[in-house]
Amino acid sequence: GAGVSQSPSNKVTEKGKDVELRCDPISGHTALYWYRQSLGQGLEFLIYFQGNSAPDKSGLPSDRFSAERTGGSVSTLTIQRTQQEDSAVYLCASTFHHRGNTEAFFGQGTRLTVV
Amino acid sequence: AQSVTQLDSQVPVFEEAPVELRCNYSSSVSVYLFWYVQYPNQGLQLLLKYLSGSTLVKGINGFEAEFNKSQTSFHLRKPSVHISDTAEYFCAVSGNNQGGKLIFGQGTELSVKP
Q1: CA A79 from chain center: how many Å?
Q2: Rounded to a whole number, what is the distance in Å from the CA of A34 to chain B's nearest CA?
Q3: Kindly report the CA angle at B72 between B67 and B78, in degrees rounded to 5?
Q4: Mutation target among B33, B50, B101 for the A interface, most CBs of A within 10 A
Q5: How many whole angstroms separate alpha carbon B114 and alpha carbon B112?
Q6: Which residues of A95-112 are buried (b: 16+ CB within 10 A; e: fewer)?
Q7: Hey, are the CB atoms on A95 and B44 less than 8 Å from each other?
Q8: Does residue B74 sit at the A interface (CB-CB below 8 Å)?
Q9: A95/A101 Cα distance (integer angstroms)
Q10: Which of A25, A106, B4, B64 could lock onto B43 through a cystine, CB 3.0 to 4.6 A?
Q11: Are A86 and A79 in contact (CB under 8 A)?
Q12: With contact defined as beta carbons under 8 Å apart, do B1 and B97 qualify?
């Protein structure tokens, strides 16, 4: 498709399980970003990729969170041993380049609920 | 480091009334400024951006914003709102050498009533 695609759209998981969230950016976009949207915390930056490398992982909240990007395209965000405070909407965005003065295109997000 | 403050968490307004959503930022470096809108159960969509040049920028759906460097503000305005403008609005900044990551404000929920 033409836009950023995220899957699944909704995920309910039991506390302690691992989850993988997927993001398919717009074709040709070199930069990819993960954000988390939760009540009380607003929209928080997690990590960004330039190509397959992640120059900035400063927003990952703990070592249970990791992300990778392969082929300069699809990215997966993995949360290990999920906790209830991980419940949030995880948004992915992509941009044509990483220089800051460009529009970010967002996916519709994955709503994660940890029970 | 940058930070963004949206001064109003909720703004109720009647249809066809004007509205202003306030945004202030702080940064030690030059920034680019953005307003994004999020309709219910959807991702974020760019309304407008300030990169350089004219401080008054116009965006989609009749919105505009004015960059005020001395007051470090980037308030969003619309002269006459519609029911369909009901959504959450986010102000964001991006630094020049920070990989394009966005720092967002807490969001303002605009509720347009008939």
Answers
A1: 11
A2: 9
A3: 40
A4: B101
A5: 7
A6: beebebbbebbbbbbbbb
A7: no
A8: no
A9: 10
A10: A106
A11: yes
A12: no
Binned at pLDDT 50, 70 and 90, residue B82 comes out as very high
Which of A21, A22, A35, A25 shows the shortest CA–CA distance to A4? A25
pLDDT above 60: residue A17: yes
Asked if B100 and A97 come within 8 Å (Cβ–Cβ), the reply is yes
Q: Give the 3-state secondary structure of residue A34.
A: strand
List CB contacts (< 8 A) between B94 and chain A: 100-101
Q: Per DSSP, which regions of B27-86 are E strands?
A: 31-38, 44-50, 56-58, 64-68, 73-78
Q: How far apart are CA A72 and CA A52, in angstroms?
A: 5
B16-63 tens-digit pLDDT:
999 999 999 998 888 899 999 999 888 899 999 998 888 999 999 999
Burial class (CB within 10 angstroms; exposed 0-12, middle 13-18, buried 19+) of B59: middle
Q: Between vectors from CA A50 to CA A78 and to CA A94, what angle results, nearest 5°?
A: 75
Beta-carbon contacts of residue B108 (< 8 Å; ≥ 6 apart): B6, B8, B9, B10, B11, B21, B22, B88, B89, B90
| B42 part of contact set with chain A, CB < 8 Å | yes
DSSP conformation letters of A77-105:
EEE-S--GGG-EEEEEEEES-SSSSS--E
- Work out the mean pLDDT of chain B and round it to a whole number: 93
| Inter-chain touch A31–B100, beta carbons under 8 Å | yes
- Residue found under tokens 């004015």: B66
